[in-house]
TrEMBL record:
UniProt keyword annotation of Signal present: yes
Domain of life of the source: Bacteria
UniProt protein name: Multicopper oxidase
Listed Gene3D superfamilies: Cupredoxins - blue copper proteins
Listed InterPro entries: Cu-oxidase-like_N (IPR011707), Cu-oxidase_C (IPR011706), Cu-oxidase_fam (IPR045087), Cu_oxidase_CS (IPR033138), Cu_oxidase_Cu_BS (IPR002355), Cupredoxin (IPR008972)
PROSITE patterns linked to this entry: MULTICOPPER_OXIDASE1 (PS00079), MULTICOPPER_OXIDASE2 (PS00080), PROKAR_LIPOPROTEIN (PS51257)
Keywords attached to this entry: Metal-binding, Oxidoreductase, Signal
UniProt domain Plastocyanin-like: residue ranges: 15-133, 327-435
Classification lineage: Bacteria, Pseudomonadati, Acidobacteriota, Holophagae, Holophagales
Length: 436
C-alpha cells in the first residue's frame, strides 16, 4: 500500500502456533503471523519503507533485526538497525531504500549475530518480489497464487512434544538438518494448479540442506531466473540444484495434465560423508501438485532479457577466500570479528573474488551482501547455464574453487560475506568488507 509513489510495509515479529504435526501445537516465530512473513512487493525505482516492530516474547534470543538478502542497498540499510544491536522486544526499527536492480525473487530474514540460525529455524523469513518494466513486459505467468507461486522450501526437526528442535541430537555436528520438509511453513503440502504453464518461484530457505528439485515423472521444465533475476534465455532441465539461500524460477507445462497429481521431489545426489550421515543427499517428495482446473497453455519464451557479462578485464584485482571447517569455521584462517574490517574495496570498482573450499566434508553456500554479481567459473567443471545470470549465493563443493566478478557500484559502508549454513555463519565463517 503506497502513497506518493512510495510503498510502506509494517512487519511485526511475533510468536505464534503452527500445527506442523496433527494435534500437536508447535511454537513458531513469524512476521504478521505464526510462521514466515508476508511477501513484500517492490518495484525498481520506487521508494520502500519497512517498519519492523519486535513483539517477540522476551528471551535470550528475542533481539532481532532485518536483512534484505540480495538487495543492493547502502551499508547502513543492509541490516536494520545493524548487525551488532538487534532491537529489543517492544522496540521498532525503520528501513528505507529504493531498489535499483533487475526484477528478481529476493528475501528477508533476521541477522542478529549468534541467533540468526535459531530465529530463521523458528520461522522468521519472507520473500520479496521485485518487479520492473522487463518483468511486466515478458509473456510469463504472473498471477500471484493463480499461475505464479512462491515456494519457500525448508527442513525442520520436531521434538517428541511437537516443539521445533534446533541443533539438538545432531551428534555434535555444527549444522542443522531436519527430516521434515515444509513448503511455505506447511508440512505435507499440496498445491492446486491450473492445467497450463505454471511459474514456480523457489527459495531454498533451509539452513544446510541442498535440494535437487525434479518432477516425479522426470519431465523437462525451464529455469528462467536465478538469485538476482532473469536468465538470458530459459534453460531446459530435468533437475535443479539449489543450495541454502539460493533461488530459481521455473516454468512447468501442465497443459496436458488436467485431473492428474504428481510430486515435486528432491532427488538423491552424492554428498560428502559427514553430510550424508546427517541425511543429506537422500531423495524425498517435497510437495504434491494437483492439476485441478483448466489453465492457459502458452509457449515458453525463446529468450528473456540480455544479461551482459561483466568482462574480466574490468576487474582491478583478484582476492582469494579460503573456507575451512576444521575446528572453528573460518575464512582465510580467521573467525568473524565484528570490530574487524577484512576487506576494503573502492566504490565503483570491479573485483574478482576466488572462493576455495578446502574442506573435504561439506559443501559451503557462500553469500556476499550488497546485491548481485556473476560467476565466472567453477574449477569443478563447466558453469551450468542456470548459473550464468545474476547471483548472490553459490555452492562451493569440497576442493572446488569458484570465481565471481563483482561491481561495487552504488554501495557504501559495511557489508558481510559468509557461509549461508547459518550455524557456520554463527560460528564465525563470516567476514566484513567496507566500500570506501
Ligand atoms: Cu541471507 Cu547475510 O544473509
Ligand atoms: Cu544477504
Ligand atoms: Cu559452511
Amino acid at each position: 500500500v503506497g502513497t506518493g509513489g512510495s510503498v510502506h510495509y509494517d512487519l511485526v515479529a511475533q510468536a505464534g502456533t503452527s500445527e506442523l504435526e496433527a494435534g500437536k501445537p508447535t511454537e513458531t516465530y513469524g512476521y504478521n503471523g505464526a510462521i514466515l512473513g508476508p511477501t513484500l512487493r517492490m518495484r525498481r525505482g520506487q521508494a520502500v519503507e519497512v517498519a519492523l516492530a519486535n513483539h517477540l516474547p522476551e528471551s535470550d534470543h528475542s533481539d532481532t533485526n532485518l536483512h534484505w538478502h540480495g538487495l543492493k542497498v547502502p551499508g547502513s540499510m543492509d541490516i536494520v538497525p545493524d548487525l551488532h544491536q538487534g532491537i529489543h522486544s517492544g522496540e521498532t526499527a525503520l528501513a528505507a531504500f529504493t531498489p535499483d536492480q533487475p526484477a528478481a525473487l529476493l528475501w528477508y530474514h533476521p541477522h542478529p549475530h549468534g541467533s540468526t540460525g535459531l530465529q530463521v529455524n523458528l520461522g522468521m523469513a519472507g520473500l520479496i518480489l521485485l518487479e520492473d518494466d522487463v518483468s511486466d513486459a515478458l509473456p510469463l505467468p504472473k498471477a500471484y497464487g493463480v499461475d505464479d507461486f512462491p515456494l519457500v522450501v525448508q527442513d525442520r526437526r520436531l521434538k517428541a512434544d511437537g516443539s521445533l528442535a534446533y541443533m539438538e541430537s545432531m551428534g555434535g555436528k555444527d549444522f542443522m538438518m531436519g527430516e521434515r520438509i515444509l513448503v511455505n511453513g506447511v508440512e505435507n503440502p499440496y498445491l492446486d494448479l491450473p492445467a497450463g504453464l505454471v511459474r514456480l518461484r523457489l527459495l531454498n530457505g533451509s539452513s544446510t540442506r541442498r535440494y535437487a528439485f525434479a518432477l516425479e515423472d522426470g519431465r523437462t521444465f525451464h529455469q528462467i531466473a536465478s538469485d538476482g533475476g532473469f536468465l538470458a534465455a530459459p534453460v531446459a532441465l530435468t533437475q535443479l540444484r539449489l543450495g541454502p539461500a539460493e533461488r530459481a524460477e521455473i516454468l512447468v507445462d501442465f497443459s496436458k495434465d488436467l485431473g492428474r497429481s504428481l510430486f515435486l521431489r528432491s532427488e538423491a545426489f552424492a554428498a560428502a560423508s559427514e553430510e550424508a550421515e546427517a541425511g543429506q543427499g537422500r531423495g524425498f517428495p517435497v510437495m504434491q501438485l494437483r492439476i485441478a482446473r483448466p489453465g492457459t497453455a502458452r509457449p515458453v519464451p525463446g529468450s528473456l532479457t540480455p544479461v551482459p557479462r561483466i568482462p574480466e578485464s574490468e576487474a582491478a584485482m583478484t582476492r582469494r577466500f579460503g573456507l575451512e571447517d576444521t575446528g572453528d569455521a573460518v575464512i582465510n584462517g580467521k573467525t568473524f570479528d565484528e570490530m574487524r574490517v577484512d576487506v576494503t574495496v573502492s566504490a565503483g570498482s570491479t573485483e574478482i573474488w576466488e572462493v576455495t573450499n578446502f574442506a573435504t566434508t561439506i559443501a559451503h553456500p557462500f553469500h556476499i551482501h550488497g546485491g548481485q554479481f556473476q560467476i565466472l567459473s567453477r574449477s569443478g567443471g563447466e558453469l551450468p547455464e542456470g548459473e550464468r545470470g545474476w547471483k548472490d549465493t553459490f555452492l562451493v563443493s569440497p576442493g572446488e574453487t569458484v570465481r565471481v566478478i563483482l561491481r561495487f557500484q552504488g554501495l557504501s559502508g559495511r557489508y558481510l560475506y559468509h557461509c549461508h549454513i547459518l550455524e557456520h555463519e554463527g560460528a564465525g565463517m563470516m567476514g566484513q568488507f567496507e566500500v570506501q
